[in-house]
What we know:
The chain is mostly helical. The chain has helices spanning about 5-70, 80-95, 100-115, 135-140, 165-180, and strands at about 115, 130.
Amino acid sequence: MTLEEILKITEIFADVVTPVAVIFIGFYINKNLKRLEHDRQKAFKKKEMQKEIYDDIYGKLNIIFCYVADVGDFGDYTPEDIIDQKRYVDRRFKSYRPLWSGNTEKRYNQFMTSCFDHFAGGLGTPARIQTSSKEKRGYFKNINKIWNTKWDSRFTGKKDSEIFKRYDDMTEAFLREFVD
């Protein structure tokens, strides 16, 4: 075979292989772009679901915080209201647990443990609120609202000194879910 024949065969081979290689490279790039788009849509949907749940529970978490910390509108609620808020928030958060990072779950649980003694009354009894009823009774008295003395059993009588930090840590963890 002459050099001219070898060059001609090489030229024909390149003419055939180049379009085939371009097709395969294009197919590979297209496949990866579709996968990336699918992953992006999945992440967006997850963020949407998280935002929907966050929007639903965050006001209730704030009510719990205000009540336990005796700030804001804490006097507008009864212990029964707070226990109901806790139950609702727990159901929503825990039903969608896989959506949240381990850090967010940890911070949520720390906050809720600061607010409630979950097992103080034993099985089948509501959690007790980790604070004193003194401020609540005083507020009710000041605005001429009747305090049900049975509510006193809903409190542990002690407050977690870290409640503000726990609330801030939980809030930060939730917000990081949306920006990270």
